[in-house]
Design a protein that fits this description.
about 300 residues; alpha/beta; globular; binds ligand C2E; binds magnesium ion
């Protein structure tokens, strides 16, 4: 294009428009500095047992308190961390912070604190030979019960190298942690792998859940995913539940757990504690997460 307009086109280029590669390099430097300098935060989104509307745990989601740009979401820096290899430090930090927080909440033991914690792992972390050691180190450091930790791996990351993934998952599973396939339905996992991986939970991607009520196709996909999960003996979790209609549809379909703005956005730890305290008491609060009666009403009173 520049050629067609003549050789000097670059001279009219807006000088304030910095080369994206330069921007990335700068952001990368800032991120490295930010990780070391304690600028990362973890927010927690409740995971609800649909049948009882009781919190069963939380998912840890990283944020970056950038000194000038404010609180940044993962979309603005996770890919960069992944491509540069910084995800190793970032991931280790998030895991450690989440396990520490989980251990603190479980020591409170007052029923007002979430205890089980889910942490996301990237494709690159999955390929890191130190991963299992790192997970074990955090569990040991805070004395956290491994069965209360779930590691989430996207379907896409698993399918990048299924043979390697299966080995790593088996090693992680031996630590006693739970394993979830994240963003399920977006990555072409074959059913064979689903059966062979030591998975405890299937998280149905938000893109399908958001179509409940508007798309018959999405409705069929969500329902099939739930049945598939139950057929292989694992939990089904719906991501991105935003409306009460979606919640009640998922309940009818027999989905076990749900996360989404309908219940709560991801919250800073102290705000999550406030949110839990403000939840109405449930008659069924003694019921643990897991497949409940398919038609139980999640009534609070
Ligand atoms: P994810 O693991 O699938 O997490 C769910 C994302 O959906 C979160 O976005 C969450 O805030 C958002 N979400 C939850 N409920 C709703 C809803 O009802 N509606 C809508 N529109 N969105 C909802 P977030 O926090 O921006 O994270 C995006 C992705 O970044 C995550 O997707 C995960 O893949 C990645 N990520 C986040 N934290 C970490 C981390 O510590 N390590 C790694 N490797 N990846 C992370
Ligand atoms: Mg996740
Ligand atoms: Mg997801
Ligand atoms: Mg996602």
């Amino acid at each position: 294009r520049a050629k067609a307009r003549g050789r000097n086109t670059w001279e009219v280029h807006d000088p304030s428009e910095v080369d994206p590669a330069v921007n990335r390099m700068r952001l990368l430097g800032e991120l490295r500095h930010g990780i070391e300098g304690g600028q990362l935060r973890v927010h927690y989104q409740p995971r609800m047992t649909i049948a009882t509307s009781v919190i069963s745990g939380v998912e840890a989601l990283v944020r970056w308190e950038h000194p000038t740009r404010g609180l940044l979401q993962p979309a603005e820096f996770i890919d960069l961390a992944e491509e540069s290899g910084l995800i190793r430090e970032l991931g280790a930090w998030v895991l450690d912070a989440a396990v520490q927080q989980g251990a603190q909440w479980s020591r409170l033991g007052d029923g007002n604190a979430p205890v089980s914690i889910a942490v996301n792992l990237s494709a690159r972390q999955l390929a890191d030979p130190q991963l299992a050691c790192m997970v074990q180190a955090s569990l040991t450091r805070y004395g956290f019960d491994p069965s209360l930790l779930t590691l989430e791996i996207t379907e896409t990351a698993l399918m990048e190298n299924p043979v390697m993934a299966r080995k790593v998952l088996t090693t992680l599973k031996a630590l006693g942690v739970g394993l979830a396939i994240d963003d399920f339905g977006t990555g072409y996992a074959s059913l064979t792998y689903l059966k062979e991986f030591p998975i405890d939970e299937l998280k149905i991607d938000r893109s399908f859940v958001s179509g409940l009520g508007t798309s018959d196709g999405d409705c069929a996909i969500v329902s099939s995913c739930i049945q598939l999960a139950h057929a292989v003996g694992i939990r089904a979790v719906a991501e991105g539940v935003e409306t009460d209609y979606q919640r009640s549809t998922l309940l009818t379909m027999g989905c076990d757990l749900a996360q989404g703005f309908h219940y709560s956005r991801p919250l800073a730890p102290e705000l999550l504690e406030d949110w839990i305290t403000a939840q109405p008491p449930s008659v069924a609060s003694g019921r643990a997460a897991g497949p409940g009666p398919a038609h139980a009403e999640p009534d609070d009173d």
